[in-house]
């Protein structure tokens, strides 16, 4: 009887959880373990990976040239995050406070870019900003400039591409946080004589801080690894950590070093998520 009851209770759970567990095991756990093991491997004289334990890959992470790229990565990610907050906050507030059918239109303007591959859209920006692109053509046609401007292959262009790609990741958590605002609190603030700026900084901003922080994590972390944006729009002049990893696995043919860099990026991600959790953030807003 107990055996039959055990089967009745266990089999449904295995059928429900089993496929998900196997999926996570083979497509998340195993690759992470493989990358972790690879980060401690060595290279022979022919650049073949040998499973000989070494810490040299992690020691090389402190190379001066790499440290410069770390700093540049953090700067680009920080600028991208700040610009996304400044642009996305009023847009998210507008969506959350719109009651008509226009709300769905505004929301779809954020979702529609996800329907197209980001790589294709970044190439569109390269064409638009090129010396023979639409922007330079329009500027010369209007006699604003006498010759094409070199708009590509700058750090600012890389930040522009990052903002364009990651903007929706800031809007969605901000929209969720702003929509949860209790309207009675805003009315009470107005009744007590608080003006617009006072209400915003003392009521609205503190209550939506969770959305700002979760959106910042969702923007900052990918900005460290979006190597294709830095390659296409930055032209190698504004590398991020993702560029280092990509080159080690491709042209550098140094998989152990690339794996070590990947592990560091994963640890940074886990650290930021842990800080967010400690501050009382909702993990569901990060998709965790």
TrEMBL record:
The record's Gene Ontology cellular component field reads: plasma membrane
Q: Where would I find the ABC transmembrane type-1 domain in this sequence?
A: 70-276
Q: Which GO terms describe its biological process?
A: transmembrane transport
UniProt cross-references to CDD domains, sorted A to Z: TM_PBP2
Q: Which UniProt keywords apply?
A: Cell membrane, Membrane, Transmembrane, Transmembrane helix, Transport
Where are the membrane-spanning stretches? 12-37, 69-92, 104-124, 159-178, 199-229, 255-273
Family membership, please give it. Answer: Belongs to the binding-protein-dependent transport system permease family. CysTW subfamily.
* Name assigned to this protein: ABC transporter permease
Q: Which organism is it from?
A: Roseburia zhanii
